[in-house]
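Quarterly update from the structural biology core.
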Amino acid sequence: MTKIYPNAAAALEGLLFDGMTISAGGFGLCGVPERLIDAIVASGVGGLTVASNNAGIDGEGLGKLLRTRQIRKMISSYVGENKEFERQYLAGELEVEFCPQGTLAERMRAGGAGIPGFYTRTGVGTLVAEGKESKEFDGETYVLERGIRSDLAIIKGWKADESGNLVFRKTARNFNHPAATSGKVCVAEVEEIVPVGSIDPDHIHLPSIYVKRLVLGAPYDKKIEFRTTRARETA
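Predicted structure, tokenized:
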């Protein structure tokens, strides 16, 4: 059976339902599964819990799902560049579980490795630790964090072979790998699909066993979160 689907909507067919939890790769607008997000928007599925480092920016990335009010809860680390996220949170329209960035990555990785929880010093003595179990190890206090196991993982890769072995490009590796492993089903979109054997095994970042469905998303418009310019200097 082929893992390759003709488009993002087809790749997500039968996987989406109201109230589900989704792990999403990406960091800002880098390594974001744009085609899959657009297909989720078009599906109309709602009440979503989304675990992702952030929610993109207004109208881009996961910001599209915020705009359509399809997300009920965000499990995130950094949300400072999305005004709609801020507005919904302050208005009580969006539930937010803030999580330190490294802890969030480890929660996804742990969930994918079958580890239900782990102890970390990060967040001890802060609001992050409120309501969580703590324990002392070697005279230091640690807080218990739960692994994240989602119904679906959506990720963006640079290159894949036809069996689903993936390569991420530079900083686009970010949260894509831990997000992929944390999902019961992982759907990946990539910029290029090549024949099996074309990728050096030592260069594979995510083995095909994690990728259940694959879609070619190219061409992409490389977006910049904040474009800054300065006036040209004159002699």
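Residues 121 and 142 are 5 Å apart (CA to CA).
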